[in-house]
Design a protein that fits this description.
With 451 residues, the protein is an alpha/beta fold. The chain has 8 helices and 24 strands. The strands form 3 sheets. Strands 1-4-7-10-13-16-19-22-23 form a 9-stranded mixed beta sheet, with helices on one face. The longest helix is centred in the last third of the chain and has 16 residues.
Length: 451
């Protein structure tokens, strides 16, 4: 255990484990960073202030100590930074700000930590029940970008059967709390309640924003009762209305509230997989699982693909890869002069979008040639343009070494491009075979390999 009465202490890159009471007792201006603190607690320790004669009110320099084991205990008024640490398996909590002092805890920054399997997760309380409401007790507290996992799994020795909350707030005068922020955190599963407060109004003084909330099925989101108080409690449970409830209680309008349970995702096989060659099965399965394999291409995988089918597959993959709709792709990538492109033989939305994105053109006479077979050379040309939209492929059109193409080849740059980017591979003897028809299964493999 580290105990000091000095201010401005920095703990950096330490591992403190297996302490019966606390990992560190620190004063104002302390920084704890890049540390692991674990397996803390279990000692029965109570301290008596020589002036007040009360349990748990402090020892040296008003340092507040509580029983049963916290990783960090702070004395005297804050200016504290806790950043990028891993706290786990702690009987009470990872840090303890229990206000029993005359003054203001301020400038507390808790950021980027992982708190796992602890009693309570965070603790901001004020034990001055009859306090002057005009004295600010907490000011400028930022709790940001932390993970709380599986909290509430230990009990206080004096309160058997009572599970600690994930977040413990005992504020008797809301005006005493200024600029308290819980932002961009993940609150994941608490055996006890997620929030324990002395009154529902307590949460109104805290800014909750952008947090993710997950509680056990039927678990408690909110409670305002304590085991030592005899009054009718308010308890609110995690149910099908949890998202609305959490947003209402916390005011976190951007909250992410995940479903009650997460059944394992059942990975089904694409239909008619037996119609594909065995060497294509894995790629077809992956394309199907990713969600970009159109229903019209989920059969007859050995058949030659048509121009229309290839464009349908290409636009489906492009939406998957960019997470954009056709309209969004057009708004971002299409040239204004291309937006009036149409074909006499089709009004298909994917084909028109591909034409306006300059991925494809017609076969002449205003025709697209929807059902015309499609060869490997034509596929390479479209794929080069599609890769250009995504923008994550290398711009290399130097000679790849295919043995059956030369500078006289129609657009040889496209063939070299797909070779260098490993989008399309050659055939026996190092050939590209540009005039060979392209199969459905070959097309699916190409797009799956592209990501």
């Amino acid at each position: 255990m580290i105990y000091t009465s000095d201010e401005g202490i920095v703990l950096d890159n330490l591992s403190i484990q297996y302490n019966s009471f606390a990992a560190a007792c620190l004063m104002k201006g302390s920084t704890i960073q890049n540390c692991e603190m674990a397996f803390i607690g279990g000692a029965v320790l109570n301290y008596y202030h020589p002036d007040e004669g009360q349990i748990g009110t402090g020892t040296v320099r008003d340092l507040v100590l509580v029983d049963d084991g916290n990783a960090l205990i702070f004395g005297h008024l804050g200016n504290t930074t806790i950043i990028n640490n891993y706290f786990h398996d702690i009987v009470n909590g990872p840090y303890n700000f229990e206000h029993g002092l005359n003054g203001t805890y301020e400038n507390i920054n808790v950021r980027g930590n992982l708190f796992e399997r602890t009693g309570y997760g965070s603790n901001l309380t004020n034990f001055f029940r009859n306090d002057d409401p005009n004295i600010v007790r907490y000011r400028n507290v930022t709790i940001d970008d932390n993970y709380w996992l599986y909290n509430g799994y230990f009990t206080d020795r004096a309160l058997m059967g009572y599970s600690y909350p994930m977040h413990f707030f005992e504020f008797f005068h809301p005006q005493q709390y200024v600029n308290i922020n819980y932002t961009n955190n993940v609150f994941y599963l608490s055996k006890g309640t997620m929030f324990q407060v002395n009154s529902p109004a307590t949460l109104d003084v805290i800014n909750f924003s952008g947090n993710t909330y997950v509680q056990t099925n039927g678990g408690i989101i909110f409670r305002d009762d304590f085991p030592w108080e005899e009054r009718s409690p308010i308890r609110i449970y995690y149910d099908e209305n949890a998202e609305e409830t959490i947003k209402r209680l916390t005011g976190d309008k951007t909250a992410i509230v995940l479903p009650l349970s997460f059944p394992p995702t059942e990975v089904s096989s694409p239909p008619n997989l037996a119609t594909a060659d065995s060497w294509a099965h894995d790629h077809i399965q992956q394309a199907y699982s990713k969600g970009f394999l159109p229903a019209t291409l989920q059969n007859n995988y050995k058949a030659d693909i048509t121009r229309g089918e290839f464009v349908t597959l290409a636009m489906s993959w492009l939406r998957y890869k960019t997470n954009m709709t056709n309209a969004e792709l057009l708004a971002k990538h299409a040239k204004p002069e291309n937006m009036d492109r149409t074909f006499a033989d089709t009004a298909d939305a994917d084909i028109l979008a591909a034409a306006r994105l300059d991925i494809t053109a017609g076969t002449g006479g205003g025709q697209f040639g929807v059902n015309t077979n499609f060869n490997r050379e034509q596929a390479a040309i479209m794929l080069m343009k599609i890769c250009g939209i995504v923008g994550t492929f290398k711009e290399d059109t130097s000679d790849f070494g295919f043995t059956d193409i030369d500078a006289a080849q129609w657009l040889p740059d496209a063939l070299n491009y797909v070779g260098h980017n490993e989008v399309m591979s050659g055939k026996l003897g190092g050939r590209f075979a540009p005039k060979d028809n392209f199969q459905r299964q070959e097309s699916i493999i190409v797009f799956n390999k592209m990501g």
